[in-house]
Every structure is written in structure tokens, then in C-alpha cells.
Amino acid sequence: MSPTSTRRVPLSVLDLVPRSQGMTPAQAIEESTLLAQEAEALGYRRYWVAEHHGSEAFMASATALLLGHLAHHTSRIRLGSGGVMLPNHSSLMVAEYYGTLATIHGDRFDLGLGRAPGTDPMTAAALARTSGHLHDFAAEVRALRAYLGMPRPGARVRAIPGEGTQVPLWVLGSSTGGAQVAAAMGLPFSFASHFAPEQLREALAVYRDRFNPDAETAQVERPTVMAGVNVLVAPTQEEADHLFTTAQLMAIRIRSGQPAPLDPPVESLAAAVPPELLGLAQAHQAVRAVGTPEVVVERLEEFVETHELDELIVTTYTFDPALRRRSYALLARAWGLAG
């Protein structure tokens, strides 16, 4: 594909507020604050924070609080949840939290909604988690849309503040289930291909085939898709591959039930972990672009064209947070973002 025909979609950032070994939770949050400021200066469209609980690696349990903190330290970039795991919360409380953010900071927030636990079963139970079944999830999304909409005559339960803020909703998914909900409700869809790529094609086909722009809850006129990609950019391929072993070790720890803060990169991943666990990391992070700016841009372009995407949301893990910021800066310049 020639440079003039390449479609450069907007780029956004997905952050789980990672903590490296030897780093305090406060330092991890400060590093994410610096990254959000850098992302804004570089021209990224959105900065989303994903809800996780009980994790030594990710400091993103109280998503709305983190977004409020980031809003105080940025001025333009859109901030959002990537996402709020809706069965962990009441839709009324989510509407109040995000309605309050919008009341304070204006139209800068996206409300991405998922139905996964975002944690282990015991922690999920401690959160008083309700059903994540599709029917119940769709009902909660519908209720949330109503709470954030214009005042309803005679409504006895109202989200104040929140009512009338019209905070945009996105449905998140890693399977065809989320795609069905997003399509039926006419909402934009963000697919978690950065950690669950197996059903990407099928989910996007379901979403596009069943999309209903006339739904009462519709917010977009046509199917609108964002997809996640693991990215690491460095001046050389060798350095990028080396630094990416931190993300691979993180994936292995998650899949093998051995949570811990991020590990430093290793010279040989094959020598550091058993072969069966190495395969887990490869499958978990199959959608990735790792290398020099030119290599990463080429792979992202191919991914966009193959799946006809409207936006990419990229996530990067490095043991040294300064190298994470460098990766996002190299990508922004190579992609041509207007920073």
C-alpha cells in the first residue's frame, strides 16, 4: 500500500497503571499521570484506564478516582474507562461518579463498559458482584444510558449529578457477547484483541451485521470499532524485543496465577520460563506490534486495513516507565499524530 493510500486512524492509550518491582503504588500512579500528560502533548485521542482489583501489578481499582486525578493534570485529551466492569457496580452509582466527573471537567469522558470480573473469583465475590450474563448486562447498560440522559418526567430514581451529561458509552468485549449488546443498542464497540484475539473476526462480523442505528440507545450512526494492540517501539528491533519480555512475563504470570509487579526484561525468555508457559504468552499477546517505528507502523496499518478499524487503542508495558513514554513518543511521531 502506498503512503498516500494508507488510512491513519486515531490512536488512543490504554493504561492499567502498572507497577514495576521496587515501585510503590503512589509512584505507579505518578508515572501514569506523566504518561497521560505526554499522551496529550503527543496528540493521542483518548487515555483510558482499565478497572482491575486485587492485583499487585495494576493500581487501577478505583477507575473514576484515577480519571478525576488525571483530569486535574491534563486539559484536552479525552479520558475514559476501558472499562468499568459494570456487574461490579450499580448503574446508578456509575452514572453519579461519571456524571460528577463530567460536571466538574466538562465533556472529556468516555464510559467504556465491560462485564468481566477484572479480578479473581474470591475478590469478585467480595465486590458483591452481580450477574455478568448478557441479558442482565444489557439491562444495566440501558439503565445507565437513561440515568445519564435528559431528565425523565416522573422518574423517582435520578443520577444527580449525572442527569443530562450524556457521557458517551462504549461497549467493551472479548467475545461475540459484547458485540451483540453493542450492535443491538447502536453503541460503539471496543474489542480487547490485545489479550483475547481469538474471536476478533467473528465478533466484528456479528457487530457489523446486527448493528441497529435506530435503537433508542443509539449513539453512532454506523458500526464504530476500536481494537486493542500490544505495542512496544524502540530505536532498534533488538532493544524492542528485549524490552517486550517484561510484557511477556506479565502475561505468563497472569495466565499461570502468579501475580506480581512487573519484572525487569530478560535476555532469554525461553531460558526464564518453561515452554508451555511461553506458549501462553504468545497466544495472550498474538495481536502485537513490537520493533522500530517503521516496523510497528507497518504492522498497525495492516491490522487496521484487515479489520477495517476506526481507531486503535494501544497498551505498552516496560519495566522502566521512561521507556514506556519513549515508546509512545516514537509511535506518535511515526504515525504522524498532530501533537
Structure at a glance:
The protein has 339 residues and is of the alpha/beta class. It has helices at residues 25-42, 63-73, 91-105, 121-126, 134-148, 176-185, 200-210, 237-255, 269-272, 275-284, 293-307, 321-335; strands at 11-15, 46-49, 78-85, 109-114, 169-173, 189-191, 225-233, 288-291, 311-315. The chain has an eight-stranded parallel barrel, surrounded by nine helices.
Outline the secondary-structure elements.
Elements (H helix, E strand, L loop, with lengths): L10 E5 L9 H18 L3 E4 L13 H11 L4 E8 L5 H15 L3 E6 L6 H6 L7 H15 L20 E5 L2 H10 L3 E3 L8 H11 L14 E9 L3 H19 L13 H4 L2 H10 L3 E4 L1 H15 L3 E5 L5 H15 L4
Parallel strand pairs: 1-2, 1-9, 2-3, 3-4, 4-5, 5-6, 6-7, 7-8, 7-9
Helix pairs in contact: 1-2, 1-12, 2-3, 3-5, 5-6, 6-7, 8-10, 11-12
Notes on the protein architecture:
One of its GO terms (molecular function) is oxidoreductase activity, acting on paired donors, with incorporation or reduction of molecular oxygen. One of its GO terms (cellular component) is cytosol. It holds the Pfam family Bac_luciferase. This is Alkane 1-monooxygenase. Residues 19-306 form the Luciferase-like domain. An eight-stranded parallel β-barrel has the order 1-2-3-4-5-6-7-9, surrounded by nine helices. 49% of the residues are buried. The protein is globular. The model is unreliable at 1-5 (pLDDT under 50). Helix 7 (200-210) links the parallel strand 6 (189-191) and strand 7 (225-233). The two termini are 25 Å apart. The chain is built from twelve helices and nine strands. With 339 residues, it is of the alpha/beta class. Helix content is 44%, strand content 14%. Helix 1 (25-42) packs across helix 2 (63-73) and helix 1 (25-42) runs parallel beside helix 12 (321-335). The chain folds into two domains: 8-173, TIM Barrel (Alpha-Beta Barrel); 229-309 and 318-339, no CATH class.
